[in-house]
Design brief:
By secondary structure, this protein is α+β, with helices and mostly antiparallel strands. 49% of the residues lie in helices and 20% in strands. The strands form two sheets. Strands 1, 2, 6 and 7 form a four-stranded antiparallel β-sheet that branches. Helix 1 packs antiparallel against helix 2, helix 1 packs antiparallel against helix 4 and helix 2 packs parallel to helix 4. The longest helix is centred in the middle third of the chain and has 44 residues. The chain is elongated and about 75 Å long. The chain starts with a helix and ends with a strand. The relative contact order is 0.12.
Length: 264
């Protein structure tokens, strides 16, 4: 989650700065200058992210946007926030009807609601997928580097890349209940297309068995590297959001057996 956290943090900084300067915007020339600078910084970050996303899509053949299922989830989350705030605003407006605007200003609440929900939607539909793409590509590049460093590679290379929880603060109680997402990769070192199936025995730090699982039958082109997918891989998620399988404890090592054949 290190790469994901870093990318999100790089977006939070200009967003927070822009919102802060917007709230303190007055007629004073100094505040207007700060607002323009923060807006320029936010636009620059968004522009760079568009270029990065285009590069990811063109170089690694990743979709520019997340898929429809993930977009629907993002809209549902945003709609839930919107509904809660609208209900609270309506109740407060009814209970404190006629109250001074310094106590409750419905117009300000509506503006806040629009900005808040738009920001949530932006981070869920653009920033977080971009961060996960960067993390996925980092894993792919590491896997390729490791496979190239091997002196005498086998016909099929099995690479264990990560075992991590999708949590930003790993010491929280909510994170402790999250399973570990394990990512394995396969690389076809042969000169022809192959169908490959892998059996993995995942082990913890004490060499205790955590899980034994078989991969799907995967088609790999000559020299191609792919994330290992199993029955636990979520097919409706974008490729950068998937993992090979889950375990309750962190995987530290593994044993594997593979078989391959020419594609029928």
């Amino acid at each position: 989650m290190g790469t994901v956290s870093l990318v999100i943090f790089l977006f939070i900084l200009p967003c927070a700065w822009f919102f802060w300067t917007s709230m303190s915007l007055k007629r004073g020339k100094k505040n207007k200058v700060h607002w323009k600078i923060s807006l320029s910084a936010l636009i620059a970050v968004i522009f760079i992210s568009v270029i990065a996303n285009y590069y990811f899509s063109d170089t690694y053949k990743l979709s520019f946007f997340q898929n429809g299922s993930e977009s629907i989830v993002a809209l549902i989350v945003c709609a839930a926030f919107l509904l809660v705030i609208v209900i609270i605003n309506l109740i407060v407006s009814r209970m404190f009807k006629g109250a001074p605007k310094s106590f409750h200003n419905p117009k300000v609440v509506w503006v806040f609601t629009a900005v808040f929900c738009t920001t949530i939607l932006f981070f869920i539909m653009w920033v977080y997928p971009l961060a996960e793409k960067a993390s996925y590509i980092h894993k792919v590049e590491n896997a390729l580097a490791i496979s190239e460093q091997q002196q005498a590679p086998e016909e099929i290379t099995v690479l264990f890349m990560s075992s991590e929880r999708k949590c930003f603060r790993t010491n929280t109680s909510n994170c402790h209940s999250q399973p570990y997402q394990n990512s394995f990769f396969l690389k076809n070192n042969l000169d022809t297309q192959k169908e490959v199936q892998l059996r993995i025995r995942a082990l913890d730090s004490e060499q205790q068995e955590l899980k034994v699982i078989e991969s799907d039958i995967m088609t790999l082109e000559a020299g191609e590297l792919k994330l290992v997918e199993t029955e636990e891989s979520f097919d409706e998620a974008s490729i950068w959001s998937r993992s090979s399988f889950e375990t309750d404890r962190r995987v530290q090592s593994y044993e594997s057996v593979y078989r391959y054949r020419d594609r029928k």
